[in-house]
Amino acid sequence: MAQMLVPEEMLEHFDIVSIVHKSEEYIIRLEEKSNTIPDTMEWKGRAVLDGFCRPIELQTFPIKGEAVYVHLYRRRWKERGGGKRNYKNQYQFNETGMKATREFGAFLKEAFRD
């Protein structure tokens, strides 16, 4: 069911970890797949996981009148052996200035067009 709510482009890079129903909202937690080493890393063979970045929170289409939010947790990487620089992947799943998925943002723009 959650796969119907989460844009397919997100599921290429992220796995659904949990779905939580709080008062009048659903939160879908997605974690970046562990094999997504950033292209910006010079020594990919020496990459090690270094936790997660702060989540990106985007709103998507509601279910039965309740808000649905997608929380994207990107992995943070560093070079094995004490590298001090962190690396992360960059994604553009939303329109600039909107905290909604592209599809939901396009729907809202069209719905409220004068």
Helices and strands, with pairings:
Layout: H1 2-5, H2 8-11, E1 14-22, E2 25-32, E3 47-52, E4 56-63, E5 66-73, E6 75-79, H3 102-111
Parallel strand pairs: 2-5
Antiparallel strand pairs: 1-2, 3-6, 4-5
Structure description:
The protein is of the alpha+beta class and 114 residues long. The protein has one domain (2-111). Helix content is 16%, strand content 39%. The chain has three helices and six strands. It has helices at 2-5, 8-11, 102-111; strands spanning 14-22, 25-32, 47-52, 56-63, 66-73, 75-79. It is elongated, with a radius of gyration of 16 Å. 17% of the residues are buried.
For this entry, give a set of tags.
alpha+beta; 4-stranded mixed β-sheet; 39% strand; two-stranded antiparallel ribbon; 114 residues
Give the strand order, joined by hyphens, for the main sheet: 1-2-5-4
Q: Tell me, what's the shape?
A: elongated
**Structural class designation:** alpha+beta
The biggest beta sheet, please? 4 strands, mixed
| Cα Rg | 16 Å
- Beta-strand segment tally: 6
Low-confidence stretches: none
**What is the count of DSSP helices, taking H or I runs of 4+ residues?**
3
Quick description:
This protein is of the alpha+beta class.
